[in-house]
Amino acid sequence: THQGATFGDYIANRYGSNARLPQFVRGEHVPTLALINPHSGARAGRDILEIARVTPYYQDRFFNIVDVVRDMYRGGLLDV
Questions:
Q1: Cα 36 from chain centroid?
Q2: pLDDT value, residue 78
Q3: Do residues 61 and 34 touch, judged by C-beta distance below 8 A?
Q4: Interatomic CA distance for residues 44 and 41, integer angstroms
Q5: How confident is the model at residue 1 (pLDDT cuts 50, 70, 90)?
Q6: Closest CA to 58 of 25, 27, 21
Q7: pLDDT tens sequence across 7-51
Q8: Quick one: CA torsion of 64, 54, 29, 25, rounded to 10 degrees?
Q9: In angstroms, rounded to a whole number, what is the distance separating the alpha carbons of residues 31 and 55?
């Protein structure tokens, strides 16, 4: 569940409803992997994770660190 100001089914994001992370350009940008706490920084982590989920490239590279730690078992998120 998300916490924050809600308007119907929409959850407010401090960066705006159309916010996206910059397009990743292979060979120009450094590959990114992020473990973000959604409860940190006045819950700004939640907003950043929401943006990453709808932005290509970052969808599979930004993770909720709480979920990662919770899934520390064989076959969990840390099993590569």
A1: 7
A2: 61
A3: yes
A4: 5
A5: very low
A6: 21
A7: 445 567 888 888 889 999 999 999 999 999 999 888 899 999 999
A8: 150
A9: 15
Residue 72's alpha-carbon distances to 65, 66, 80, in angstroms, are 11, 10, 11
Show contacts of 32-41: CB within 8 Å, 24+ apart: 32/58, 32/61, 32/62, 33/61, 33/63, 34/58, 34/61, 34/62, 34/63, 35/63, 35/65, 35/68, 36/62, 36/63, 36/64, 36/65, 37/64, 37/65, 37/66, 38/64, 38/66, 39/66
- Residue type for 66, please? V
Q: What pLDDT does residue 11 have?
A: 63
- Fill in the amino acid letter for 2: H
